[in-house]
Write a structure and sequence with these properties.
Low-confidence stretches: none
Number of strands: 0
Mean pLDDT: 95
Order of helices and strands: HHHHHHHHHHHHH
Strand content: under 5%
Helix content: 55-70%
Largest sheet: none
Radius of gyration: 16 Å
Structural class: mainly alpha
Number of helices: 13
């Protein structure tokens, strides 16, 4: 039950940098979506790509996870495209195949370069204005850290875009580098760390995959 889960998660962690629309929705414990096309649905979807075993089931679950808040067509598309990219990456697909599949299925222009995007790009929290750029940040990367730096370099909604690009890069490059993982784990509170470890045990171990 995504609605209940999101409401409870928000109640346990108020003031943790949630978007204004999501915070208002969660605080009021509304059951209906607010029609968002913001990139929050894409930012939070990465776990779905690991918790399901086929692309079809990943896309269905990604749509379900987004729809309770981000039921605008662009919001749904952003979440599904991100989940698809992560699943394809963890399944061993090459970057070119990932780019072609996402361009065909979601209509994103992924043949642009970061150098061409960067001069005129600005802060944009919409899926349509940030998910394609996040995917390109991964496509142009040489390793996990490079994908994060690419996303931040665009000067947009940096934390969310780095989350999207990094999630794809993690799947493609075989994980988060140990030096980065060590620093991140040192900054997570006990509750979040327990969630991460429990998820890895269930879905990211060889038996889970």
């Amino acid at each position: 039950d995504y609605i209940r889960a999101y409401h409870e998660y928000f109640a346990q962690r108020p003031g943790r940098g949630f978007g204004a629309s999501f915070a208002a929705w969660a605080a009021s414990r509304r059951a209906h979506s607010y029609g968002s096309y913001g990139n929050g649905a894409a930012m939070r979807v990465s776990s779905v790509a690991w918790a399901r075993g086929t692309l079809e089931s990943v896309l269905a679950e990604a749509k379900r996870s987004a729809a309770v808040t981000h039921d605008h067509p662009e919001g749904l598309k952003g979440a599904m495209a991100t989940a698809a990219a992560i699943f394809l990456a963890r399944s061993g697909e090459a970057k070119g195949a990932i780019r072609d599949r996402l361009s065909r299925d979601y209509g994103y222009e992924l043949d642009r370069s970061l150098d061409a995007i960067r001069p005129s790009y600005g802060f944009d929290v919409s899926c349509q204005g940030s998910v394609p750029e996040s995917i390109i940040s991964f496509l142009e990367s040489g390793d996990f850290e490079d994908a994060i730096r690419n996303a931040v370099s665009l000067g947009g909604d940096a934390d969310t875009m780095a989350c999207i690009a990094g999630a794809i890069a993690e799947a493609f490059y075989g994980g988060v580098p140990p030096s980065i993982e060590k620093e991140v784990r040192a900054r997570l509170d006990a509750g979040l760390l327990e969630v991460v470890d429990r998820f890895h045990r269930q879905f990211r171990t060889p038996a889970g995959l």
